[in-house]
Amino acid sequence: MIEKLIRKNILQFQPYIPGKPIAEVKRELGLKRVIKLASNENPLGPSLKALQAVKKALNSVFLYPEGSGILLKRKIAKKLALRPSNIILGNGSDELIEIIGKTFLDPGDEIIVSADGFIRYKMAGDLMCCGVIAVPSKDHKHDLAGMKAAITPKTKVIFIINPNNPTGTYVSERELVEFFQGLREDIIVVFDEAYYEYATQKDYPQTLDYLRKGKNVIILRTFSKIYALAGLRVGYGLAGEELISYLERVRPPFNVNSLAQVAAEVSLDDKQQIKRSLALVEKEKKKLYRELDKLSITYIPSAANFVLIDLKREAGEISKKLLASGVIVRPMGEYKLPTCIRVTIGLPAENNRFVSALRKLL
Length: 362
Ligand SMILES: Cc1ncc(COP(=O)(O)O)c(C=O)c1O
What we know:
Blueprint (H helix, E strand, L loop, with lengths): L7 H5 L9 H8 L5 E2 L11 H10 L12 H11 L6 E4 L2 H12 L5 E5 L5 H8 L3 E5 L8 H6 L5 E7 L11 H8 L7 E5 L15 H5 L4 E6 L12 E4 L2 H10 L7 H10 L3 H24 L3 E3 L5 E5 L4 H10 L2 E2 L1 E2 L8 E5 L3 H14 L1
Helix pairs in contact: 3-11, 4-11, 5-6, 5-10, 12-14
The chain binds pyridoxal-5'-phosphate.
């Protein structure tokens, strides 16, 4: 009976499976010491100055937040030499993915994604009854030539996740230049740069240049990853003023709470927090590679704060065993990579614990 009331595409829709929270694992398995390396969070935590500002702002939570988030927008605009009207704020960048879907996609339109790409884009297309063309990746990288070849007259949006989650790979400036050559002007290219701050490679593209040149691009970034504010939920989108004005029509009022706005604003000033976090990831990632090499385990070198590891055997069972030993990682069945797990770079002791738990299991 209820089934008849549900929109047809929602009947097939599968919910997103997030990384298991520490408290749930402790409760379910009766464990005392649990570490989470499953959601690409930053274990060093946020800027202390941001936390102090949040404490101060607590007194004002009886008031609605500043609906447009203008102070935060001004801060981001200044940092990136843009205008506040080039910016939209989201309840995490995740909300912006859905807002993009709601703003641009009619039933029958098509979007193009990478088959190994972050699954929320496919979900946004499915939600809007839109055709989702998932182009197989090449060596776990977005196959930009393949994605371009998949364009049809129905194509409206192409999503490029850079660096990509869950593979950690990135597309280079040169590849992007080629991709934009002859690309139809009425197609919107969305760059998801949730891990932007971790991608320090020289040939990693600066997509703001494309925005400045007037291309139809939307760049999504977040305070959830290196800024370590995942629990407060704040991300932002950058685009031309006209594009932003349409996205703003769809954005729910007060979508970013006042504590998140304050924390994000102050975080932008704390260069030390970013420096420390980058240094930790760089050092610990290399250590993890060395340990995996010793165990002859295959992994994909990553431009982000996580590593995709191919165990060459059913990874669901191993993930469960790791969980039983108090280490939460992400099995990749959802991404049709059933032999892989994705592991976030944690604190040194956490990474050691993961390696020794894995060693015991293998
Ligand atoms: C590639 C990518 N984009 C977007 C998000 C969403 O992040 P948030 O909504 O916390 O900004 C994530 C989170 O894991 C991600 O990996």
